[in-house]
Design brief:
The structure holds two protein chains of two kinds. In chain A, 36% of the residues lie in helices and 20% in strands. By secondary structure, chain A is an alpha/beta fold. A six-stranded mixed beta sheet of chain A has the order 6-7-8-3-9-10, with helices on both faces. A four-stranded antiparallel beta sheet of chain A has the order 2-1-4-5. A three-stranded mixed beta sheet of chain A has the order 11-12-13. In chain A, a hairpin with a 5-residue loop joins strand 14 and strand 15. Chain B is an all-alpha fold. Chain B has three domains: 322 residues, Orthogonal Bundle (MetI-like fold), CATH 1.10.3720.10; 240 residues, MetI-like fold (Orthogonal Bundle); 95 residues, no CATH class. Chain B is 83% helix and 0% strand. The longest helix of chain B has 38 residues. Chain B starts with a helix and ends with a helix. The chains are: A alpha/beta, B mainly alpha. Chains A and B meet through helix 4 and helix 6 of A and helix 11 and helix 12 of B.
Chain lengths: 410, 715
Amino acid sequence: MTQPKSDAQILCKNVWKVFGPRPEQVRQLDAGLTKDEILAQTGHVVAVKDVSFEVQKGEIFVVMGLSGSGKSTLVRCISRLIEPTDGHVWVDGDDILAMSRKQLRALRRHKMSMVFQHFGLFPHRKIIDNVAYGLEVQGIKKAERHARAREVLELVGLAGWENHYPGELSGGMQQRVGIARALAVDPEIMLFDEPFSALDPLIRREMQDELLALQKMMHKTIIFITHDFLEAVKLGDRIAIMKDGQVVQIGTPAQVVMNPATDYVREFTKDVPRSRVITAQNVMQPPPVVASPTDAAEAVAQKLARFECVAACVQDEQGHFLGLLPREHLADPPQYNGDDLQSLLVDDCPTITPDTLLVELIRLTMNSDAPLPVINKQNRLAGVVDRSMVMAALATPAEAADSEEKPTLQ
Amino acid sequence: MINWQSLSSRAAVNKRDILALAALFVIIFLLPLLFAQLPLNVSHFPEALNLHLRQPIDQFQDWVVGHRATSPAFVYFFDPVSDAIDWGIRRAEDFLLGTPWPVILLAAFLLGQWAGGLRVALLSVAGLVFMGGVGLWTESLQTLALMLVAVLISLAIGIPLGILAARYDRLDSLLRPVLDAMQTMPAFVYLIPVLLFFGIARVPSVVATVIYALPPAIRLTNLGIRQVPGATVEAARSFGSTPRQTLVKVQLPLARPTIMAGVNQTIMMALGIVVIAALIGAGGLGREVLISLQRLRVGQGLMAGLAIVFMAIILDRISQGFARQELASTNRGAGRFVLLPQSWAKFGPARALEGLLQAGLRQAAAFARLLADGLASVAGAGLRLFGLNDAAAALASQFRRHSFFIGAVFLLAVALAVTAVFPAGDFPQAWQFDLTRPVDNAVSWMRDNLYQIGDLPLGTGPLSDFLVIYGLNPLRNFLQNWLPWPLVILGVTLLVYLAAGGRLAIFSAAGLFVIGLLGMWDMAMDTLSQVIVAVAVTALIALPLGVLSARSDAVELTLRPVLDLLQTIPPFVYLVPVIMLFNIGRVPGIIASVLYALPPGIRLTNLGIRQVSHSAVEASQAFGATGRQTLFKVQLPLALPSIMMGVNQIVMMVLAMVIISGLVGGGGLGLEAVTGLAKNQTGRGIEAGLAIVILAMIMDRATQAWVKRRQKYLK
């Protein structure tokens, strides 16, 4: 089957994975049944149920779910380490499920590599030979693959450890080796299966930061599996939340936090420091009063009075933001020449970008009563943020009463 | 489906047990009385039901004998295989016997040093010197040659099969029962067919050894590969490894320790059959043991037996050394003692000696490196002449890495050259020592003085009488005469059902009936009575000793060398003094079986108790339990599966001894099998062998199933 029109690098459509003696018969059952019902009726375990999503090039796509939600099975279906029961997976337009063993090996060797939860290192090989493994199975000469492995080890901060064995390294260092091994083949796509969950919290945070730093340099397409919602929020450009084999919600961290699709998702969002997830673009609103420099001062003043605003945003005909026009400047014009508002503008007012974090907005709105203009990359006015909007976003939405789907976080 | 087993409460289980016991009582005591009133004779299995299986087998044997020269199966398969094996043995023997003895000693030293360090090296030399010293140099090397060939063949078949079995579950489940049968079948059973098909010189003994030693090679290779963590294999796959790359680069290296343990087991098994193989022409040490057994020459038998023990220990340590080498290389630090126990480090002289030894070893290593570098530079210069600079560099690093090997080869070459100029001749007469006579004297003294101590009812004679009068005779009488055969089958079936469930019970009933069909009923009952007595005596000794050694390290340490010796020494060796002390009959067989079966019984009991989780013991102590209370209320119940595993081992070892007991007057199935072998009556031997296998399988499966059930409870 050819890929539907999409510019995504990875595209999963209606992927199923059923474990049991006759998985294909489960697929014929009504998809409306829950995992438990299917288990009770047929004895089959549905690990992944009708999952679809896309991952864009250069994006970190996080799949978050508790244990048993099917996330690890899902990521293995993408490289066919586990054979999906049904559905389609396209990578760069190639149908993975139609590939021969040989094509699949080529894909795993060159395009896609994986980092494992318990590192999956080879205990009998030196660090350098662990890192060079992917190149070795490709048949690359020893000198060349060792040179490349050394480069990558340097990148993850393990230069000098080449000739040690995995058992001699700490957990964090072992996972650096795991990452180096995955990077060594220079893949376009990296699959991370709960890579940091076996590490101490401090090391985990350090590794997350390093992953983000690495990603800034390399722009890989990453699918990252985790059971830690905070990790998902921190790393993900977008997050898919899974429960019982199904995707419950897909969205940016802020979207998920601001608008949880179900009570199940809401439970996770409770622990999230909202001020570090939500950005200006999530809370901003259209400016109530927009003026152009040629407008009459009286008209602007009337409008401001009507909307009870303290300042108007002024932009030129092309929509470029020029500055704020505070109400008091109109009431008591310092040097108003009668036909141009330009001279009344405060053009050095603080402005913010759409991805300014809420935590920053708090600080900024504390200092001024005026709304903060949100200016996008094209120097256009995208909206404004004021103190009341910030406060509203900070307030946790009302708790859902007696949700049946309360996740248990250990 | 509902699992009634798990639903039934404890009370219900007890109720079932009581019912079953009542049924057993009825079967054993009341029904026989009833049967006695019947006009039929049911105490013996009806002769009319005898299948006379031996007739077609004997006919087949006649056919084989008649067509050996013409049948294509022989011309194109068995004979070429035989010839190849025969050629292999001859080459190996010529090689070992053609090498001057000092060179062999040096080679053993170097091999020991390479595999496991100085201790193993010196042990190897000592063992060989002993073999030479007691005048068994040639015999020992003959045995070694035969062993090497048999082990090589076993590994060449076993390791690939193990790899395949790890890869294909179907092959694994196909092989499993075959391996089970191979391991439970007494070697005697296949001696006869092997003799029939591979009739050339020492070839049958090699084939029999291969059959005997093959299972651990297959099993442990399979196990080792399957034990490689799934995550590691998955990681290899995720990088696009082909199945072959995964096998060679990941699975085999990680399975190496287990595979090496399999190699070690194979070698040990092969040595374990040395004496039996001598029955069909193996020669060497085994033949020495057999001859001295026939002539009741204890001393000579003991020397040959000890030579076998030494060979077993040497080969064990060397192969174990190779298995452990990888682990050792990382933690073999300076200052670790190479010869003396590390705990002697507090004594000055010990430190001085060790310092000297280590300096010597360092010098030797430095010399080897120098030699390797020298050779590499010479060879490298040659390669550079042809512009092969990379090859020269690679050669230098390879030589340096294998400098020990190069140094060893150099030393051996020098030794060969020296012995070529000054022939070493045979192992020097002057070094020989005679231990035979003192041993013989000691045994004669024991026979004269221990058989009956004064006028007291003490000594081996009264003990033997006691066993016969109060144990063997009543039991045999009970099984053969009191219980009609249908009731024996019923009773055994009931017992197996209680221990292991319905399927195995049906299997047991069928198996016993087949024994009857084979015409082996009475002899099987005779053997069964002996087995029961031997198992009971062994268990009575082994279990308390096991408990004691679990509770006291001192007891364990004292027992360990004794058990090691008992496990490695061929049972034939102690059969001779046992016969002299107890007279020919059923008792020496039983005593020998007990000695043979004691070690696993003691070891598994000990292990089971020691393996009981420390927290359980601690919890018991925290509630103020005494040592005895902890033992009976916590340790023993938790160790029960392991102890039952010990009982299972006892049963199997005793059954393995049935034939050997038959040799010394035990009668029963063992004698029948031996007679079949001796008189070349293949059918008779196979009938008896099959009956032994059936008995063994019933007892093995029943006890193991019981253990498994119990283990499930404890999880």
